[in-house]
Amino acid sequence: MTESAVVRARSAVLASMGLTLSDAFRMLLKRVAKEKASPFEPLTPNAETIAAMREARSGELPRFKTVEDLMRDLNAGD
């Protein structure tokens, strides 16, 4: 999924709530200003997750054309 597709998907969720992306962002900033803190607890990845994210970003992971190909690869050791 591309970054623009992710934004469109999130925009669709907001639209179903009667909000635009700008509305949601404005609400977030107002809450941060009022509470002087983030309105949610940011997730802090552990060392294993950080390593997996770096590996994924390297672009050297295998790619699959179909879900069936992916599942075949995942189940190969079973």
What proportion of the residues is helical, as a percent range?
Answer: 55-70%
> What is the C-alpha radius of gyration, as a whole number of Å?
19 Å
Oligomer: single chain
Name the average pLDDT.
Answer: 88
Strand share of the residues?
A: under 5%
Cα separation of the termini: 29 Å
Ranges with pLDDT <50 over ≥5 residues?
A: none
Query: What structural class do helix, strand and pairing data support?
Result: mainly alpha
Q: How many discrete domains?
A: 1
Global morphology: extended
Note the run of SSEs as H and E: HHHH
Q: Tell how many strands the DSSP assignment holds.
A: 0
Word description of this protein:
It is a single chain. This protein has 78 residues and is mainly α. The chain has one domain. The chain is built from four helices and no strands. It has helices at residues 3-16, 21-35, 47-57, 67-74. The two termini are 29 Å apart.
